[in-house]
Amino acid sequence: MKVGLLFGSFNPIHTGHLILANFMATNTDLDTVWLIVSPQNPFKPSNTLVHEFDRLQMVTLAIGDNANLGVSNIEFSMPKPSYTIDTLTYLQEKYPSYEFVLLMGEDNLPLFPKWKNADKILEYHKVYVYPRSGSITTELPEMSNVTFVKAPILDISATFIRQCIREEKSIKYLVPDAVAEYIQVHKLYQ
């Protein structure tokens, strides 16, 4: 089985994440895409994050019954902050017959060489890069395991959604209805 891994804070998950994940699962050679909820990204401040279990629940609600997508809390039990190489290594040990492919936005390429063991990620795993609005094209030193995928560009951000919630503006269609309801019931991002 060939599994695409889309890592993220998903704070909250939105339709852009879902469209991208489903596109990658159905328009590439991947069998499925797992959304990996990261408790703490080493490159992002954690003061705006709601609890990881709320974010996991929102991703689960967002995916619903889509058989192309899965959700994982694998990083919840790992040391924080989460490092992609450690998660990839753990998953490969847990599922030795699976091939894991890292899905990465083009906007992450300039930072990629600073990632922990970036060279090992490229050595042992394929990386599928999708376009992001306003990205500066950057060449990776070793391109053999990197594939650029022409996926739709959706300029929706969780930051914008959180701002809308704080300003009591509608988030309809930015997030799935079940996620909007969860946010409202649990009074998140207010």
Automatic annotation (TrEMBL):
Q: Which UniProt keywords apply?
A: ATP-binding, NAD, Nucleotide-binding, Nucleotidyltransferase, Pyridine nucleotide biosynthesis, Transferase
Q: Which residues form the Cytidyltransferase-like domain?
A: 6-163
Task: Note the Pfam families from the entry.
Answer: CTP_transf_like
The answer to whether the entry has keyword Glycosyltransferase is no
Which EC class heads this enzyme's classification? transferase
Q: Annotated pathway, please?
A: Cofactor biosynthesis; NAD(+) biosynthesis; deamido-NAD(+) from nicotinate D-ribonucleotide: step 1/1
Which reaction is the catalytic activity of this chain?
A: nicotinate beta-D-ribonucleotide + ATP + H(+) = deamido-NAD(+) + diphosphate
What InterPro entries does the record point to?
A: Cyt_trans-like, NadD/NMNAT, Rossmann-like_a/b/a_fold
The answer to whether keyword Transmembrane helix applies is no
Q: Can you name one GO molecular function term for this protein?
A: nicotinate-nucleotide adenylyltransferase activity
Which BP terms does GO give this entry? NAD+ biosynthetic process
Assigned EC number: 2.7.7.18
Q: Which domain of life is it from?
A: Bacteria
The UniProt similarity line reads: Belongs to the NadD family.
Outline what the protein does: Catalyzes the reversible adenylation of nicotinate mononucleotide (NaMN) to nicotinic acid adenine dinucleotide (NaAD).
Name of the protein: Probable nicotinate-nucleotide adenylyltransferase
Q: Which organism is it from?
A: Pontibacter akesuensis
State which gene encodes it: nadD
